[in-house]
Amino acid sequence: MMKLRQTALSIAAGPVWLEALQAHSPDAAGLILIAQNSVGNHRNSREAHFARRLQDAGFATLIFDLQTRHEEIRDPDTRYNTPLLGQRINALFEWLRHQPPLIEMPIGLVVSSTGSAAAVRALAKEPELVGALVCRGGRPGLAGITPLRQVACPTLMIVGEKDEGLGNLHQAYELLGCPKAWRTVPGTDDCFREPGALDDAADLAVAWFQAHLTRKLTA
Fold it and tell me: End-to-end alpha-carbon separation of the chain, Å?
């Protein structure tokens, strides 16, 4: 089994610092960035469980918060500010460019909730860095028509069969011009709370990244 080194990080994003947890190994098949809409709890959250499934498949992971602890407590509307959250994902991309061991790896991105719209906005501005995107439900349509059309990397939409926002998800999916796929997890909603649902979603993500992330060529 791949031995991972866990490192807690603080990443600058404009005037704030975002908490993150990196699990890295030099022989990893790629680095999967996982946006977390809540704050902290990087070892026991649902995103942490998702990350462990990716790690078991040979990927390094980096879970990062989209908002600060202060914002979560005092300004809960921050999580719905998709332009701001998109800028924070772009700030993470900029940080990665200064991390030679990481930026040389194939990079994937996992998002959910309003993080899906934030990711679409970020990828519309910077289409080259991420090799594959997985939206676990969420509301990518909040990004707007033009950013959706500008996403270039292969994108997988994993949706719960009982997600009340399926109509909006379908509309956003149809606007994507990139290579894409739609997968439904039976018997669950947008939060994938039912037993086994999150694991099913993680298995679909693993297969997507294995198919679409390739080792970057070095001179």
Answer: 30
d(CA 148, CA 189): 23
Q: With 70 as the cut, is the pLDDT of residue 152 above it?
A: yes
pLDDT digits (tens, 9 = 90+) for 18-76: 999 999 988 899 999 999 987 877 877 889 999 999 999 999 999 999 999 898 888 88
* C-alpha neighbours within 13 Å on the C-beta side of residue 139: 12
